[in-house]
Amino acid sequence: MLNVKAYLKPDTVQSAYEMGQIPGSLYVSGGLMVAQLKISNVERIVDLKSVGLTHIEDHSDVFKIGANVKISDLISNPYLANLNGDLLKNSIKEIGSTQIRNMATLGGSIAFKLGWSDIITIFMILDSNLEIYDGEFSKISLQEYVKKSPKGVIITEIEVPKSGGIAVFEKFAKSNFDIATLNLGLKVVLDGQIVKDACVVVGSRPMVSQRIKEVEEFLIGKQLNGITKDACDLMERVVQVGSDIRASAEYRKALSRFLLDKALRRV
Ligand SMILES: Cc1cc2nc3c(=O)[nH]c(=O)nc-3n(C[C@H](O)[C@H](O)[C@H](O)COP(=O)(O)OP(=O)(O)OC[C@H]3O[C@@H](n4cnc5c(N)ncnc54)[C@H](O)[C@@H]3O)c2cc1C
Fold this sequence. Notes:
Helices cover 31% and strands 25% of the residues. The chain is globular, with a radius of gyration of 19 Å. The protein has a 5-stranded antiparallel beta sheet with strand order 4-5-8-6-7. It folds into 3 domains: 6-51, no CATH class; 56-161, 2-Layer Sandwich (Uridine Diphospho-n-acetylenolpyruvylglucosamine Reductase, domain 3), CATH 3.30.465.10; 166-266, 2-Layer Sandwich (Enolase-like, domain 1), CATH 3.30.390. It is α+β, with helices and mostly antiparallel strands. It has helices at residues 13-20, 78-81, 83-91, 98-103, 106-111, 118-125, 142-148, 213-219, 228-238, 249-266, and strands spanning 6-8, 25-28, 44-47, 56-58, 62-66, 129-133, 137-141, 154-161, 166-172, 182-191, 194-203, 210-211. The longest helix is centred in the C-terminal third of the chain and has 18 residues, at 249-266. The chain has 10 helices and 12 strands. Bound molecules: flavin-adenine dinucleotide. Residues 26-34, 48, 67, 95-96, 100, 103-105, 107-109, 111-112, 114, 117-119, 154-155, 179 line the site of flavin-adenine dinucleotide.
């Protein structure tokens, strides 16, 4: 980023957005990905850290998490860490190293829409919504945000509904600190042994995380015991995966079955 001429530190979301609209501007929050960009057309860095957005609020039906909250802070809040059967407590430690988790922000991790993002998979199974600012504040589901890729908007908050159910996250990577070859999130709401509701998300396909509706529909209404093999067969058939330097599509299909099997057993 040799052509950067200005480093701006606005103190409101509105002024940050205005600065961000000028061609050649780039937002930065934790800075981990921005620091690695090899692009020459960025002339102005707009630092979002002074606008606040570091809150974690417990409302009656949702948690509201500011976009500048660090990934590591998600597990220091006991209510959030224990959400949906300790999902965040168990999954956040799978993301990079302690140093990375202490720098990376939730907003930056979502906005970059990395195919291998664990954060997107984790927050998609929680059915999260984003508050965004594009001249005015509005809400969009994380799923829609990832599909539409709106340009130039600022993510200000992530809203996680208190929806109940048990959620688990599985990741296959070549080493502890490596990014995922494939990741999978599963959330089920049970009535006794019967699955009342299900959400299944696969990420690092290597494309960005996606809900696997066919598997969700298959699980709903079934008794949890004894459906693992059929659910895994279906997953392997329907999951849309591709090949890259990390793995072939065939390998990822086999992994999708393995991770779903593990997730169902953990639930
Ligand atoms: C070595 C390494 C290993 C990693 N391992 C993993 C891993 O295993 N799993 C995983 O999920 N992630 C991993 N990550 C990624 C990391 O978790 C974050 O995704 C990444 O650091 C981005 O967060 P950031 O706050 O640093 O964003 P930045 O680098 O500051 O910004 C990233 C992008 O988002 C934009 N942006 C930032 N904030 C906002 C906002 N509020 N609104 C709109 N746009 C915004 C910026 O303009 C930029 O385009 C790894 C990163 C590194 C460097």
